[in-house]
Prior knowledge:
The chain is mostly beta strands. Helix content is about 0%, strand content about 50%. The protein is built from no helices and 12 strands. The strands form 4 sheets. The protein has a 4-stranded antiparallel sheet, with no helix packed on it. A 4-stranded antiparallel sheet has the order 4-10-7-8, with no helix packed on it. It is elongated and about 75 Å long.
Amino acid sequence: MSVNLSSTTPAAPSGATNVTFQTDGSGNVSAYITSAVELTGNGFDATAQTANISTTDLITTPVAGRYRISAYIIVTTVDGASSTLPSIVLTWNDADNGQGQTLTLTPTTTGNLLTTFESGDAFVSVGASAPLAFSTTGYASGTPATMQYAIHITVEKL
């Protein structure tokens, strides 16, 4: 049986993905699938936070398109009195209408335990005219700056 490697590929059946074959010229053949998701390298990771985080760019000059933002925020040091884990808020300019948008990705939470956390994912269409950014809001600690939290945000270009 012979194998024909060419630069043309028939369309994949519905719900399937084509595999691209390549040869190195010495008769070795390999195959790959192009990834649909690209980590942008832009994200945010911080620990020992004792206040709200002001507006911080995730992507200063975004390439217009769709992005998935995933976030996780958790209490790492409880306050003996009380505390509120802040919400994570995203801001960007929409790719279709150019208008500034705001999305509260996670709510504030008053658990005050090491098991208090929130996570969220968002799919947004970002224009190139302004940064994709985040901030936190609603941090409270009964004893000022005692409750600490960690925050982790991942950005993927789809």
